[in-house]
Amino acid sequence: MINASVVTEFILMGFSDNPKDKITLFVVFLLMYFITLGGSLLIIVLTVSDARLHNPMYFLLSNLSFVDMCSTSTTMPKMLVGLLSGNKTISFPFCITQLFFFVTFATTGIFLLVSMAYDRYVAICNPLHYTLVMAKWTCFTLVAVSWTISSLHSLLHSIMVSVLRYCGPNIIPNFFCDIPPLLKLSCSDTSVIEVAIFVEGSVIAMASVFPIILSYFRIISTILKISSGEGRWKTFSTCSSHLTAVTLYLGTAIFTYIKPSSSYSLDKSGIITVMYTIVTPMLNPFIYSLRNNDVKRALRKMLSQKKLWK
Known about the structure:
By secondary structure, the protein is mainly alpha-helical. Helices cover 76% and strands 3% of the residues.
């Protein structure tokens, strides 16, 4: 057996090492982080405070906003501290913990998007039964199942990654601990674990992508039966925000994870993951509110009430 030291911490290389670039990146990412937290929190507050938003669609949206806040808070604070202080080290236990929570929140977000696709399917294809089908217990069940499956999925992946040996190098060319780079850095034989992660991850991907595709197939079929062009567009517009979020989130996530480890590029990992770990959560509040009259009305109502209190 080769005598090799055991890695007890990793170095998150993240982005540029140029001092000038660090300050710029810190300001940009801090602003993006605040926008994500502020936008997501605003969606949650509006959903809770406005009675007109007390329905399944906005219940699921508020849960997605909460997940977005948690997901970015798992990765961005450590990255921001590293940019500001220059300390990019992360201990092995904290790395695995970060990995667990990130995968949990990311997977929960995917399943919530599936739930929202089902909600749109019922609302458009079975409007007369919408209230009955999407009852409170159904919504709570969808959210609970999303969190349960995601936690178990994340726990399985975290355990498989944590039992591997890491002998060096210990540099992760990313801004947080993720599965592909950790597999690359391990000095153990990862072939069996890679296959297990790939197969299990593919099952999760199919369990999320196929219901969304099926829901939109039925939705589009129903929309095409509407005689008026205005009616078709008005109906489809209720799905446009969700479809945009699904494309942004699932597209980049599947591209990153559902492929053999041999084809994974460490140099490109940070750039690719920025899209679904930072950009998409930041954009979600805007995607779901800019073209949503209900959210706009709730926001105007809240702002007018604040003016009255002054």
